[in-house]
Design a protein that fits this description.
homodimer; 12 strands; DNA-binding; 6-stranded mixed β-sheet
Chain lengths: 337, 337
DNA sequence: CCTACTTGGTAAAGCGGTTAACTTAAGGAT
DNA sequence: ATCCTTAAGTTAACCGCTTTACCAAGTAGG
């Protein structure tokens, strides 16, 4: 079933059918239009998107590139990814585009992919600064980065106030009377969200006159199992902490489990604060106090930029960061009480 | 940059370039081949997938259709979806296909979508029996259903032994001495996984001579928040239960929270068993005992069938169900101890 | 009556590939 | 010297759709 067949049945040319299909009504009488439409409905004809894309040079396809978490972990091992993807999917659908989802190790892998599919735009999740120039140079479609720090690069990035998040995390603990703090974090070496959170955290400590040394940092992967180990290390390590700040919720979940396994009770023996405010914070006990980011906001902002660039055929440069707050629950003890 | 340009630079026809691209080496000398390949590498040329699809009538696109959970809930509100999607994505990628993800309310919405994109195959998650014939009739590409019950329909379905899961759930509780059981479940009216689990559960009760009435069933949506309410209802309802079986983990999480809010401790005051064995079962306290299904297995089986049908251009009919077990953790009390 | 504009359409090129059918030159067999 | 094969390409049609340029007929103005 193709456009030719419809044209034949209607006794018109394919051009006319195409005009009806594309709403170019000025070229076709109401009568013919009605006739063609009824035939289309009757036959259930749907134009071939590929053929259309080929000539229109637009695909109505949006690429969504998700970082690969690690060997055995799928990209949902951190539920953060699931939530942001779900929110983006909604907006893509609402704008009548299609979502091509791809998980990649090296983000450069997907550049050929995006260009050979003629993707109209793409979201990149959690790309590091170093990888931005190459992506930018190899591809010239609208892109929105989420959670990328690349000052100086001309990109659209949507993120949160990570520095302030880290800062608030420390301030919150300090406000509850905690002064012996540990930090559990993935690598802080590369410029990125984690590094910013770390900086905010340590700055808050410094301001408050709280000694915070490198020895107080525990490095982990962004996975539950890796964090469990850290929780145990901290419990056994005798670091004499009263509170642990985690740079993501999934890590906090693991740390708490590690602590529990060693007989420590949260928050009575040890306080823990997370980062992300996943819905899962509610599922556990104690409920995890966490620095809150809003997935919905991120997805909305990111979509606004992407679709503006696509429809207006323009290049935007922006770095929007969502204001952040602490979602208080039960995992941090108030030492003043 | 298109195939003509490459052909020009190499001083050959587009057909020859195409042959190199498609590995039809019999038609081209090693010399020309090397030359063309070097030009391709040099220019970074990538063939346009749309154009290729148009003539080859295959798209290398796999559709993944995910049910829409409800008004305000995204499809990851139940993490089950996230895990199965992630696993499927891995297999799709490994087979060198591309994933088009689409969340839909009415599955019929996507039929035109799949056909106008010339998708080579599709996975449908959690479709009800009634919707199968229409899907089947409107679309003639290989499809694999996951978690669909449609006996008599000629489809490939990959699922788990839901009946046995429900049965084991009851057996497990009974084995621990529980006889006053409540069941928390989404709608059991429509034929589907939940109905099967329910049947297995009640059959096990009957076999054990345990009275189980309709009044012992509490209906909920498959969301956390809905289940919290049920937990409270049960706590306040004075139903005199010692154990609650939930037909999915996300529901169990909510129920436990509801119970907690009413001052009941799990498992001391009330035992709870879930269904799905999400990784999240580990995150909470007490850790949730749950009927275990294996996402990896499901995704692998589903992919095997789909890609076999695609490459062999054949129609298969199958109904594979993964054997199931109870993953024992801490949320069920042993009344005999 | 002639010209000009509008309405409702058609014909055909082209998007970037693939492929069946054809060509041409060289080599081998007879 | 002739015929057949094979290797290595080339030509051109076609996939399903959009779009530009063109056309015919009707209407209106002068």
């Amino acid at each position: 079933m193709n456009i030719r067949e419809i044209a034949q049945r209607a006794g018109v040319s394919t051009a006319t059918v195409s005009n009806v299909l594309n709403g170019k009504l000025s070229k076709v009488s109401d009568e013919t239009k009605a006739k063609i439409e009824s035939i289309i409905k009757e036959t259930g004809y749907k134009p071939n998107v590929m053929a259309r894309s080929l000539v229109k040079k637009e695909s109505r396809l949006i690429g969504l590139v998700v970082p690969y978490l690690g060997k055995d972990e799928d990209f949902f091992a951190n539920p953060y990814n699931a939530h942001i993807i779900a929110a983006l999917e909604r907006y893509i659908r609402a704008n009548d585009y299609y979502l091509m989802l791809r998980c990649v190790g090296d983000p450069r892998e997907i550049v050929p992919l995006l260009s050979s599919w003629n993707v109209d735009g793409a979201f990149f999740l959690g790309i590091y600064k170093d990888e931005v120039p190459e992506i930018k140079s190899l591809i010239d479609i609208p892109i929105v980065f989420l959670d990328t720090y690349a000052p100086g690069e001309e990109i659209v990035n949507i993120g949160i106030e990570d520095y302030r998040g880290g800062y608030l995390s420390a301030r919150y603990l300090i406000g509850k009377g905690h002064t012996k703090l540990a930090l559990v974090s993935p690598d802080i070496a590369s410029e990125g969200v984690i590094r910013e959170r770390y900086k905010g955290f340590t700055d808050a400590c410094r301001e408050a006159g709280i000694p915070f040394k490198n020895g107080n940092i525990y490095y982990t992967e962004s996975t539950y199992h890796s964090a469990v180990q850290i929780g145990q290390d901290i419990a056994f390590g005798g670091g004499d902490y009263t509170a642990i700040a985690c740079m993501s919720d999934i890590v906090a979940f693991g740390v708490i489990e590690g602590l529990k396994q060693c007989g420590l009770r949260v928050p009575y023996d040890m306080s823990v604060i997370g980062f992300d405010n996943l819905p899962d914070c509610e599922f556990m006990s104690p409920k995890l106090t966490s620095v809150a980011q809003d997935f919905e906001w991120k997805a909305r902002k990111a979509s606004e930029y992407l679709f503006k660039m696509i429809t207006d055929k323009c290049i935007l440069v922006a770095d929007e960061r969502q204001p952040i707050r602490v979602a208080e629950r039960q995992s941090v003890k108030n030492l003043y009480e």
